Fold this protein.
Amino acid sequence: MSVPESRRQLSVPVATVEVVDDSLDAAFIHARGLTKRFGEFTAVDGIDVDVARGEAFGFLGPNGAGKSSTMRMIGCVSPPTEGTLRILGMDPGADGPAIRARLGVVPQQDTLDTELSVRENLLIYGRYFGMSRAAVRAKTDELLDFVQLTDRAKDKVEPLSGGMKRRLTIARSLINDPDILLLDEPTTGLDPQARHSLWDRLFRLKQRGVTLVLTTHYMDEAEQLCDRLVVMDKGRFAAEGSPRELIATYSTREVLELRFGPDEDNNVYADKVEGLVDRVEVLPDRLLLYTDDGDGTTAAVYQRGLLPVSTLVRRSTLEDVFLRLTGRTLVD
Amino acid sequence: MTTTLRPGSGSETLLARIVPLPGTSARRASLMVERNALVYRRSWVIIVSGFFEPFFYLLSIGIGLGALVGTVSLDGRMIEYTAFVAPALLASSAMNGAVYDSTFNIFFKLKYAKTYDAILSTPMSPGDVAAGEITWALIRGLIYSTTFLAVMLALGLVGSPWAVLVLPAAVLIGFGFAAVGMAATTYMPGWQDFEFVQLCILPMFLFATTFYPLATYPSALQAVVVCTPLYHAVELIRSLTTGLVDGTVVIHIGYLVVMGLIGLRVAGRRLEKLLLT
């Protein structure tokens, strides 16, 4: 498109000083005892969060853990039942429109306007923020370029692929140069190419200083994008820290996976490896031994005369942390 | 680049003061109209087609049946049957347009397209959405009313200078029905509930003095007919085009104003309850 090179850079809202001024170090998002109840059901149960400017913060958790409810409260489209919530130093109850003017929102399900074209989706969305037509046109061209949809600008939304719709939703969320970008499961349901393409875009936004708050149940996504994250379960925080800290605290450096025959009782083998490591997990098809030295433990297993069909030593991941904290039982 | 919109600032206007909906601004509501204009820029045929329905009724019943009926006695004055039916058809089409726009279209955006969920993530409020959607329905209704009035003029069916007030009156009718239609839509769980809308609209169209005067009914039934909103809409337009204007016009106007304000208020509240949970 004919956008001058100088405009191609997304303008970074680093210095939105007018409201933040003396509180630059104060949390962009500040919650104390934040609670959301729907009738008898408590979706979010008194959480405390602080997200600093420029941080990439993640909410991890199984379905129904309260992630989306938390995001909707932060997005000022769901009033908290109890507790304190301040976004950009303002109160969502009193200043909802003023806060929303400075947020970008990528909801869990696409809410693109299917009656409009790709380009019109961005044009009208900018207008909802009170932007002038000229400003919104320039921004639209820039964002279509950023999410690589310039050649689909005139198309309707419906025939776009899932990944394209998601990219368009991200472009839409950036129309107002938001200070905080809220992403609710941004890559759920996408193929690997589309996910990596989205991560690339999000990573570039993060480098430009946009504060990212995202929910996910993909551990690789959390490890890729988040500086800090919380594991949520049943409306509460089960753990909090950087991905590395969480692995150090809740798992070991490595995991040894042992598989015995398909008809073997893994509980028997669990007894036989007892004492080798601090924690053993018995799964229907394999044993997990949490260890700091995978090869050493493997050798020790053979020394005990055990002959597993296969052994695998791998690094501990957030997934191990996640499953330890939230359990392996299926939710919903 | 981004203008921060705050409730209670200068952008609060007349609308907000008349309709006590929190955080509603006419400027933001107008953006809903802008959005709909974008949509219909491509599908203008739908808008054109809405004109033909009352026009065909006018040809068939007004002119065709009118040849058999001749004249009708109204307030002691004899008027051509076509001139009697035409204003009622205009009022009904204002009702139909408003109801269609505020029920089917809004239901789709509310339940399926999630259009409003996206809009409410911006500084727009539920009141803005409700007011904007109703305004759009009015603009669309105004286009129909204007063309229909032009047809009436061309056929010599307008008998009074009061007719200059027909268009504002048609907008008022649209407001009353669109607001109530939208409010009702927020209570509907599924498409099948729209049968109830038809169940309200069709009998009104047939019996609310559209095709014959109120005096035709026994007095007990008259009392029922007088309660329906379309009766007031029809009588309002008819009095303007025939020039038989009296004090009852105030009652018609009052009925429609109250109906619209209640509908708007309920619609805004319900949207808030449905979308901002």
Notes: Chain B touches chain A through 30 residues (CB under 8 Å).
